Amino acid sequence: VICTVPPEDCIWTDWIDVSYPQYGQENGDDETFETIQNKIPNWNCAKVENISCRAEKYPNIPIEDLGQKVGCDVNTGLICRNKDQTIGGVVPMPVCLNYQIKVCCTPPLSPECTTATTTTTPTETSTTVTTTTAASTVPPTEGGSSATPTAPGST
């Protein structure tokens, strides 16, 4: 079972838009992972490896060129606050545009990887060591022998 996923194996989501900016100084657009998880409970992203953000009305213009102060990163998602905006750029009023994000998620680990398991290996000593598993007793192999022990009473 492979319990680590290389970053190149992340899976891109569709565009996500769970928040629409409202007018008012304290409002804005909140496409953070916490908000997404609250609005889409079955959203299952073990780790965000990459993120892409865009304005809904200007999908082909990089967000850096829109003249708005917007945070877009793999640790939190996207956040735009109206109070951080100024008049100018593409937007004639100090209000956040409606943004969308898509993320490249590492798939969740398989159940075998999230369950703690303990394995023990008998150590080599000068005395005979037996390992008991369920109801059977199997002596360890000694000296590299691959002989299989026989059950009592069998030939």
TrEMBL record:
Residues 115-142 have a biased composition (Low complexity). Residues 12-105 form the WxxW domain. It comes from the Eukaryota. InterPro entries: CILP1/CILP2, WxxW_domain. It comes from Penelope pileata. It is found in: Secreted. Keywords: Glycoprotein, Secreted, Signal. This is MUC2 protein. The keyword Metal-binding does not apply. The gene is Muc2_2. It holds the Pfam family Mucin2_WxxW. Its main location: secreted.
